[in-house]
Amino acid sequence: MNVGESFLTALDSLFANKMRAALTMLGVIIGVAAVIALMSIGNGVNQSITGEIQSIGVNLIVITTDFDNSGGYSSLSLSDVAALRDPLNAPAVGDVAASVQGSQEVVNGSNSLRTTVSGVTASYFPIYNLADFQGGDRLTEQDVNTSARVAVLGANAAEDLFEDTYPIGENIRISGISYEVVGVLQESGGFAGNDGGVYIPISTAQSRLYTDRTRQGQKAISMISVQAASEAQTEAAIEQITETLRREHNITYANDDDFSIISQADLLATFDVITGTLTAFLGAVAGISLLVGGIGIMNIMLVSVTERTREIGIRKAVGALQRDILVQFLMESIVLSVVGGLLGVLLGWGISVIAGRLIDLQTVVDIGTILLATGFAAAIGLIFGIYPAWRAARLRPIEALRYE
Fold it and tell me: Does residue 207 sit within a domain?
C-alpha cells in the first residue's frame, strides 16, 4: 500500500466515525488556537512597545542619578546640562533637555486630578517628539528664563480638568498656585504617559514644587535627556557624556559614577528580551494543551486498533505487510492532528483579532507562528500515533482473525 492509498484509507476510517474524530481533534484545535492567539498578542505587545520607543528615536540617551554612589542626594543639575550643550565637551551631542517631576494635585474649579507634573526645559518637547498640539503651543525659552506660571497639558489631563471647556487661556492650580494653560498636546496613546501629564517650566518647578538640592547646593534635576547628533554617533555621544560628567563631578573611577546612562537602543534591546521571553513562555504554556491533545489522539488510536483487530487480520491475510499497517494507522493519526491544527489556526486567528479589538492592540499573526503551531501539531500526531500503529502492525494474522 503506498502513501496515497494509506491517506485515502485513513480518511475513510475517520469519516466512518465522524463524532469520535471531531472530539479527538478538539484537543489539538484548542491547543493550536491557544498558541496562535497568545503568541499573536505577545507579538503585538512587542511591536507596540518597540514602535513607541522607535518613535522617540533610537539616538535618545537618558541620564539619571545613581543614588548608590551619590550618598542619597540627586547628583544632576543645570550646570551639567550646560556642560553637555558645549560642543567642545560633547561634539556628538545634538540637543539636551532637563526635567524634574513628581506627583501633584492639579485643580480646575470642581475638577481635580492627581498626576505627574514635570518641570521641563523648552527643548524637552522636540527631543520627545511632542510637536502635535490640539491648541496653543509648547513652553518657550522665555517661559523658562522668567519662571513663568504657565502649563502645557496632556490630552487626557485636559479632558479630565476642563471636560467640554476650551482650556487655552484658562487657569489651573498646582499646589495652590495658579498657572495659565498655554498648550494642549494631541493624544499619543503611548506607554510613556504623556497624555495624562502636566508640563511647566523647569525654573518654576524648582522654585515652587521640587526644591531638592545636590550635595554642592545646586538645584537638583531628576533627569537629563540627550539626543545624539545621529544614530551612528550614539555610542560616541555616550562616551563624551560620561567623560564630561565625570569631569564636572570630580570622579576618577567608573565604579564611583554618581549617574546612570541608558540609551533608547539599550532600552529597546531590553524590551525585546523581556517581550520575547514572555511570548515564548505564553507559547510554551499553550503548547501544553497540544500535548494533552496528543495524548487524546493516542488514546483514540489505541481504541481504534482494538476495535479493528479483525480488519487488520484480514488485511494481513491478503498480503498487507507490517509497514503497510504501520503507515495506515500513522496516517490516520497525522490526518487528525494536521486537520485539527489547520482548524486551530483559523480559530486562533479569530480569537487574536477579537482580543486585539477588545484591548485596543494590533495583534500580529506571523507565518512563523502558524508554521510552528501546525508543525508541532503534525509532530504530535506522528509521535503519539507511533505506539498504536506499532501495536497494530505487530498483530499476528491468525490471532487477529480469531478476535471477536
Answer: yes
Mean pLDDT confidence for 320-324 = 73
- Whether residues 243 and 97 share a domain: the answer is yes
Q: How far is CA 275 from CA 46, 189, 374, in A?
A: 6, 19, 23
Query: Which residues, 6+ apart, have CB-to-CB distance to 10 below 8 Å?
Result: 328, 331, 332, 335
- 176 φ/ψ sector (left φ>0, alpha ψ -120 to 50, else beta): left
Does residue 193 surpass a pLDDT of 70? no
Domains of the chain: total: 2
Strand partners, 133: 185
Written as nine digits, the cell of 353 is: 483579532
| C-alpha cell recorded at residue 107 | 485643580
Chain segment 364-388, per-residue pLDDT in tens: 777 877 887 788 778 877 787 787 7
Distances in Å between the Cα of 326 and the Cα atoms of 222, 319, 320, 385 are: 71, 14, 10, 9
- Answer whether residue 210 is part of any domain: yes
* In the predicted structure, residue 395 carries a pLDDT above the cut 80: no
Residue type, 324: D
Residues of the domain holding 391: 3-52+270-402
Rounded to the nearest 5°, which phi and psi values hold at 238? -60, -45
Averaged pLDDT of the chain: 83
Taking alpha carbons only, the member of 81, 86, 72, 126 closest to residue 100 is: 81
The region of weakest confidence among 79-83, 144-148, 359-363 is: 359-363
Q: Find the helix or strand (DSSP H, E) in which 228 lies.
A: strand 223-228
Residue 62, CA distances (Å) to 30, 73, 124, 129, 308 in order: 45, 18, 12, 15, 71
Q: How many alpha carbons lie under 13 Å from residue 197 in its C-beta half-sphere?
A: 22
The string of DSSP codes covering 193-208 is: -GGG-EEEEHHHHHHH
